[in-house]
Amino acid sequence: MAGNAAPPGEAPPGRLANRWVPWLVIGLWVVLAVVMVPLSGKLSSVTTDSAADTLPASAESTKVAVLEDSLPGGDDNTFVFVYHRYGGMTDADRATVERHYNTLAKRYPPKVAAPAGEDDEGPPTSPSTDGKAMMFTLDVSTTHGAPEAIVGPLRDATKDRPAGLELDVTGPAAIDGDMDAVFEGIDLQVFLITVIVVTLLLIFTYRSPVLWFIPLVAVGAAALTAMATVYLLVKGFGIVVNDQNSALLTILVFGVGTDYALLLIARYRETLHHHENVRVAMVHALRSAAPAIAASAATVVAGLLCLLVADLNSTSGLGPIGAAGILCALVAMLTLFPAMLVVLGRRIFWPAIPRLRTAVKEKPGLWGRLGAAISRRRWVATLASLGVLGVLAIGLAGNTGALREQDQFLDAPESVTGFTVLRQHFPELGGQPMAIFTRPAYQERVLDVVKDTPGVALAIPGQTSGGWADISVFPTDAPDTAAEYDTIKRVRTAVHAVSGAEAIVGGPSAENLDTEVTTSRDEKLVIPLVLAVVLIVLGLLLRAIVAPLVLMATVIVSFAAAFGGSVFVFDAILGFTGIDYSVPLLAFLFLVALGVDYNIFLASRAREETVRLGTREGMLKALSATGGVITSAGLVLAATFAVLTTLPLVMLIEVGFLVAFGVLLDALLVRSVLVPALTLLIGRRMWWPSRLSRPAELPDGQRPLVDDEEPALQR
């Protein structure tokens, strides 16, 4: 076959196979890169982790955070300095504490001056009742910088102290600063580690010294384009991008984009055995693989966009962010990637270059033998698979309690250990302070009500400005515990009962409480919506009802098993004290949307083969043809999410491990064993109500055939 000619009896491949088209596509991507690459570097400049931006849109603590930011001095960063000596504070220690306070107060003056006469009271240093500690609070204006930029200099400025006098700089701002330090440079770190992991996996998969580089370039272009697109979305529509979502964007694009590359290369390699012209071969490969890849992308995008109904700003922001990343990966892998492969020709597969053959001899292979074994023992395969998944799901009975903010760090920083010291020596200041805003005329009434509320250790009236008066309230219980949350709820109930006060309660622990409550409410809304949307996409792709229901059921069971197994690892092996509030929803979204991908790739190929071979042979053929590539895709996607486990934050470790484990379960057990076994058990009814579910019409006098003997069917 020469040029663009089609084999006998085959329709011409069309204009896509013209020689100039691949070069045009590459040229357009070069132009796009010139525009997008500079914009991609600006994404970090619009990421935010401020409370007002990431908290639930309608929560009471959000209103407090917004009000604090709008009032003079209300957005100050609060640091708590806790000095302690095992044998008791000395006179020199106390003098050092007062000297440090005076020095820092002059260096970091508050944005709003203290009321007249207040300075005469001396430095606000407080000794503990046990005589072993002293503390003071410092409010630092945001004009001096963000918490992560201030906490380091504050710690350096207080290093000059007597031997044996320990100091922990803690407080809400210090925790924020240490949290931001974890995310500092995280985008570059995730990007580089992901590139290394994907590179190694591609080299291992293709065993070629050059082929691995092509999908890596295409996925890299998709990632940079996605970052630029998200930057434009932030500037144009004001969506919220925090550091967590920015890291997830990189993981999604690389993981999904590489999966698409593996699937397309597998089909391209097949067609190269039948077509001499590489452009013609690529057109046929795209015609075969693109529908399943597009359906996969549509499933993930639809699932991600369901997050838009979430009330938590950081969660709803992930919807368009992730969708933009998936779409960029889809476009790049269906345009730039095939164009590069065509331009480089067959030699890109060296040393295993696919040659033109009139007939390709099919070998049974591992997946063919597995399919034959499943066919012989369908019930055994089904029950054994469900048994494994059921055993793993038992882990859900383990510790699934909420993870406290102080337990988010893999290695507790000074701000977290400082809270423990503060509670040990100042038990009356057990939790993080609540911030209450009320109308000035009602401040005294609200203050009295708060003091009488069970669980409140101390309530201190604050300044009045902008038509609001603030009150600082210290609960008796430790931060982010159920007891402290109950106190916050009681305080809210009490102050809301003061008619006309318009009192609202916020603060760090109140923010965490509102976030946890909102996430629970979002789960009840988002999860059913994701299931419905994904089910519709599957129905449209497979043109059936039974098959989508079966596939969705297997994915849900797989999620329960992955979650249960992960809870066991987190609790019994890693020693985590709970599950971050955002993990279940994110893991469910990724595992349902991404996990169903492998079922899409298998089921769409099975439907294609069923048209020719019948349900039984069609599924076995599909498993044999797609087994290797889907397994490779699963390993790549799992490895990219596992990159998150290298970061020193418990929440990201939990998301990374859970999704990676779930993807492996889907790729190695659900898609490889359970789905084929169920399909063979259900037979042609799997495709109901499409024509594939009905027995083929047979000539007169021939007996009806059972599913195992289905003849070739026609569309």
TrEMBL record:
| Keyword Ribosomal protein appears in the UniProt entry | no
Q: Which InterPro entries match?
A: MMPL_dom, Mycobact_MmpL, SSD
Question: Which Gene3D superfamilies is this protein grouped with?
Answer: Multidrug efflux transporter AcrB transmembrane domain (1.20.1640.10)
Which Gene Ontology cellular component terms are annotated? plasma membrane
Record PROSITE patterns: SSD (PS50156)
Region (Disordered) residue ranges read: 110-131
Protein's membrane topology: Multi-pass membrane protein
Which residues belong to the signal peptide in this entry?
A: none
Q: Which compartment or compartments is the protein found in? A: Cell membrane
Q: Name one Pfam family in it.
A: MMPL
Instruction: Name the domain of life this protein comes from.
Output: Bacteria
Q: Which family does it belong to?
A: Belongs to the resistance-nodulation-cell division (RND) (TC 2.A.6) family. MmpL subfamily.
Taxonomic lineage is: Bacteria, Bacillati, Actinomycetota, Actinomycetes, Pseudonocardiales
Q: Domain (SSD): give its ranges.
A: 224-343, 552-680
TM segments? Answer: 20-39, 188-206, 213-234, 246-268, 289-310, 322-345, 379-398, 525-542, 549-569, 581-601, 622-644, 656-682
- Any idea what this protein is called? SSD domain-containing protein
Sorted UniProt keywords: Cell membrane, Membrane, Transmembrane, Transmembrane helix
Q: Does the keyword Transmembrane helix apply?
A: yes
Q: Which organism is it from?
A: Actinophytocola xanthii
